[in-house]
Amino acid sequence: MLTLFVDYTIAKVTIGAVLLGIISGVLGSFAVLRQQSLLGDTLSHAALPGVCIGFIIAGTREMASLMAGALATGILAALAVLVITRRSRLKTDAALGITLSVSFAIGVVLLTYIQGTGNASQGGLDSFLFGQAAAILRHDLWIMAGITFAALALVTALWKEFKLVVFDPSFAAAMGLPVVALETLLTVMIALAVIVGLQMVGVVLMASMVIAPATAARQWHERLGPMVVSAAAIGVTAGVVGALISAQGQGLATGPLIVLCAAVLVAISLLFAPRRGLVEEAVERWRGRRQLEDRQVLSTLYGLARRHQDPRFSAERGFVDAYYGVRTRKALEALHAQGLVDRFRAEPDEAEYWELTEAGVEEAERLLADIKGRRA
Amino acid sequence: MLASLMERIPVMIMVTGALVGMAGTLVGSFLVLSGRSMLSDAISHSIILGIVVVWLLTGQQTGPIQTIGAAVTGLLTVFLTQALVRTRRMRNDAAIGLVFPVFFALGVLLLNVYARDVHIDEHTVLLGEIGFIWLDNITIAGYELPRSLVAMSAITLVNLLFVGVFYKELKLATFDPMLARALGFAPGVLSYGLLLLTSVTAVAAFDAVGVILFVAFVIVPPATAYLLTERLWLMLVIGCLVSVIASVTGYILANYWDVSIGGMMAVMTGVAFTLAFLLAPRHGLLPRWWRARRDAAHNRAAIDDSAEAKRPS
Question: Which residues of A touch B90 (CB under 8 A)?
Answer without folding.
Answer: 32, 215, 218
